[in-house]
């Protein structure tokens, strides 16, 4: 897990607005708590008929509902949190991968 100091050390990018984005504090908490969610999407062979793998897509849901990656990823980049997002996602992926049978990942994902 990420240390609170690593998350708290994020600063606004040069030229960023003086006001703080309302999702910044909840995003920092989600990163620290490894609360960003992963959904898995099938990857198919070149013919499009056989599942050959999966990719993990990051999602974030707040008390007010889901937040688009098109919103929270640029926010993380702007405030220097993108590496922390990556670390949090990889931590979660490793935790979940332990419980995902290889057969499910390679063959049984819904289309």
| Mean pLDDT, all residues | 80
Oligomer state of the chains in this structure: single chain
How much is the radius of gyration in Å? 16 Å
By DSSP (H or I, 4+ residues per run), the number of helices equals: 5
Low-confidence blocks of residues: 1-17
Could you give the count of β-strands?
A: 3
Indicate the overall shape: elongated
**Helix-strand pattern, N to C?**
HHEEEHHH
The proportion of residues forming helix, as a percent range, comes to: 40-55%
**Spatial gap, N to C terminus:** 32 Å
The proportion of residues in beta strands is 15-25%
Briefly, what is this?
The chain is an alpha+beta fold. Helices cover 43% and strands 21% of the residues. A three-stranded antiparallel sheet has the order 1-2-3.
What is the strand and helix layout of this fold?
Blueprint: H1 4-8, H2 24-32, E1 37-44, E2 51-62, E3 65-67, H3 69-78, H4 82-99, H5 102-107
Describe the structure.
The protein has about 110 residues and is α+β, with helices and mostly antiparallel strands. Strand 2 and strand 3 form a beta hairpin. The radius of gyration is 16 Å and the shape is elongated. It has a three-stranded antiparallel sheet.
State the main characteristics.
disordered N terminus; 3 strands; alpha+beta; three-stranded antiparallel sheet; 111 residues
């Amino acid at each position: 897990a990420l240390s609170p100091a690593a998350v708290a050390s994020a600063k606004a990018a040069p030229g960023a607005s003086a006001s703080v984005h309302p999702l910044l504090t909840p995003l920092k908490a989600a990163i620290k708590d490894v609360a960003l969610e992963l959904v898995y999407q099938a990857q198919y062979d070149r013919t499009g008929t056989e599942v050959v793998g999966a990719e993990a897509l990051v999602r974030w849901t707040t008390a007010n509902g889901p937040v688009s990656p098109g919103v929270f990823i640029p926010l993380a980049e702007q405030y220097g949190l993108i590496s922390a997002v990556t670390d949090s996602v990889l931590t979660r992926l490793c935790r979940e991968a332990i419980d995902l049978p290889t057969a499910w990942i390679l063959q049984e994902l819904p289309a």
